[in-house]
Give the backbone structure.
Amino acid sequence: MVTSGAQSKAISDWSITSLEGKLTGLGGEDLPTIVIVAHYDSFGVAPWLSYGADSNGSGVAALLELARLFSKLYTYKRTHAGYNIMFFVSGGGKFNYQGTKRWLEDNLDHTDSSLLQDNVAFVLCLDTLGGNDDGLYLHVSKPPKEATPQHAFLKELETVTSSRFPEVKFSMVHKKINLAEDMLAWEHERFGIRRLPAFTVSRLESHRNSLRTTIMDMRSQVDIQKLCRNTKIIAEALARVIYNLTEKGAPEDLQIFTEQMQLQEDQLSSVLDWLTAQPRAAQLVDKDSILISTLEYYMNRYLKDVKRHYVKADKRDPEFLFYDQLKQTMNAYRVKPAIFDLLLALCIAAYLGLTYLIAQNFGLFYNLVRRITLKQKQH
């Protein structure tokens, strides 16, 4: 098998692009902020075949649907809550969450005015939400303490699943951050390192599930009804926290997103279809990609102050490095088996050996042939 392309070379100036937008709360400047995060890139042994439908196309689709729902609530003064909500679609998620790392550095180290510096209630990361099973897990690096927004969100998730979706097996999974490993387990660990309260909601119980790094993660593997259900659970739990419904005595089975405010399964499916119509490996999505521009357009429809954030690898000590020549033509040639070459070599050797013997003993050979021919004439 032979490829016709040139040798791959490192790309030194590749940019990973991330997007942020926000909904500003009502009631003053020092409002608590909820951050919702999902990485858009996929990963697989063959980048051009890496579509990442569930990991993490489902997370991005859920984030965009949450942005649409809460933008409607924030449109009216009556339902305009006292929480800021930031939405962050990160790049480089499959490369140790490089987009999130740079975004945190920009907001916490290189600026004096950022919602992340003031009063972060919690960071909610969305990852792999559209499978066929009925599990839903809240992954944490540190169990949330009581009387905190993180603990309130955990309890609201339990309330929503038990009262309205009893088929869902919900539980919390505690795993400490292991800085000795080369790769972080979940995206919330990037925030945990910077001492921001964060967790990840996923249908996967373990970060080692092979689904997160396979080219077999196709659109057909995602159950859109399960994705819609999981998104609704998250939306209802978020709304109960934001509007403090439990302390106000609201019924456990109260439905907030109904009728005109209900989740749109068709739109969720369309967004996922669009995301999985193209490979989204980080080394294929540059800053001018139509994927980035479309995500930016979609976020601008529902959010304010939508911005791009870029990250490039350090030239002296790069944390990631991409190469060109990702798509080449491979030619396969069918050849004779090795035993055929061996037999052919033996035949040629025997022919050459016989020819050599005849040439060296030509006189004897000539006389032998002459005698045979003379005997035949006499008979």
Observations:
- The longest strand covers residues 15-23.
- The radius of gyration is 32 Å.
